[in-house]
Design brief:
By secondary structure, the chain is mainly α. Helices cover 69% and strands 0% of the residues. The chain is flat, with a radius of gyration of 19 Å.
């Protein structure tokens, strides 16, 4: 529960309000939680359709050429949704470049995270074999 509340504050702006009345606080809270739910559902749908991760089976395995990429997470969906606000007022050609840049950056980061996970799992196997 604490992690969910912390994520709602960070990803959906649950703590970005200064209200004086209960009704205002309630409206803001409902909108923030709804925004977090949309992000969580988008991440869950992507995770469901995402291929299973490539993980080592033995401590002496060599890393594969391509470990794949981790599935979208709630913070990653938040970053991609913020892209909409960033490009809204820009000309179409610049907006298209920014979208391509952010999607490449997201893919690069998720591939690096998958490679780091592969090495982490291999190290844990080494500790278990020891």
């Amino acid at each position: 529960m604490e992690e969910d509340f912390q994520q709602a504050k960070g990803q959906a702006g649950l703590d970005h309000t200064q209200v004086r009345r209960y009704r205002s606080w309630l409206r803001h809270s409902i909108l923030a939680v709804a925004a977090l739910a949309v992000q969580a559902v988008a991440a869950a749908v992507h995770r469901r359709d995402h291929p299973t991760p490539v993980l080592p089976t033995h401590a002496d395995d060599l890393p594969p050429e391509d470990c794949g990429a981790i599935a979208l997470t709630v913070p990653e969906t938040h970053r991609l949704l913020l892209l909409h606000d960033e490009i809204r007022a820009q000309p179409a050609s610049i907006a298209e470049q920014r979208i391509r840049y952010h999607l490449r950056w997201s893919t690069w980061r998720r591939k690096r995270q998958a490679r780091a996970r592969w090495y982490h799992y291999r190290k844990r196997l080494l500790i278990l074999d020891w």
